[in-house]
Write a structure and sequence with these properties.
By secondary structure, the chain is of the alpha/beta class. It is built from eight helices and seven strands. It is about 45% helix and about 15% strand. The chain binds guanosine-5'-triphosphate and magnesium ion (MG).
Length: about 240
Amino acid sequence: MRALIVLPTYNEADNIAEVLRRARAAAPSADILVVDDSSPDGTAEIAKAMGAEVGGVDVLSRPAKSGLGSAYRDGFRIGRERGYDALMEMDSDLSHDPADIPRLLDALDRGADLAIGSRYIPGGQIPDWPWHRRALSKYGNRYSAVMLSLDVHDATAGFRAYRSDVLGRIHLETVRADGYGFQIEMAHRVALVGGTIVEVPIQFVDRRLGTSKMSSRIVVEALALVTWWGVKQRLTGKKPPR
Ligand SMILES: Nc1nc2c(ncn2[C@@H]2O[C@H](COP(=O)(O)OP(=O)(O)OP(=O)(O)O)[C@@H](O)[C@H]2O)c(=O)[nH]1
Ligand SMILES: [Mg+2]
């Protein structure tokens, strides 16, 4: 299976070289597309230099910071145009361990349409998080599962592999959400078209370098969107097939 790992970056100069080195080592047959939004800290230049060293790395430079969801939409569109069979999401801050890439791709090989690196199934872990961050994530996930009849334990997770054709079936180009909302919307849409979703346990560690781009706006956006999608699902009577 030809796989493309899409890495969104905004000011990840401290992390990107290490991410690229470890991802290439873990999955030498997968290619990488860094989607950088003109990071002022020079992330794109570092990615290009490391790409020349390890090979298999392309950098898409976009003119302005346009959000995580939009970076993945652009990266996946390009990956599909280039004929990849599998498209992956991974953060570029080493919260996701590149060594787990092959386990996610294996799940696609065994028939999944979407493989999610999950923190909320046995074997999954978030060792660094304080209780309030755990609670927000856990209850946010429970709320999404109930509102959307979504049989997924970690719908906000951002370490994933998609079979290319399922991205066509969910009409990726019409997805609008960003941040956590983007992750939930993608899982919800895959479920609605009857795609097989498999969760693979992962450990999620806090970034050691660089700064987080997540904000309370993104959390509020996700909650509002989940509520709206849940209401819409009830009004139209469309539910994920079981
Ligand atoms: N291209 C692009 N990448 C982004 C944007 N916002 C965030 N990213 C990248 O998306 C990934 C996840 O963002 P983070 O800021 O780490 O968010 P998070 O992992 O949910 O939150 P933390 O756990 O606090 O780090 C990182 O690789 C970021 O550099 C954006 O607007 N454009
Ligand atoms: Mg992060």
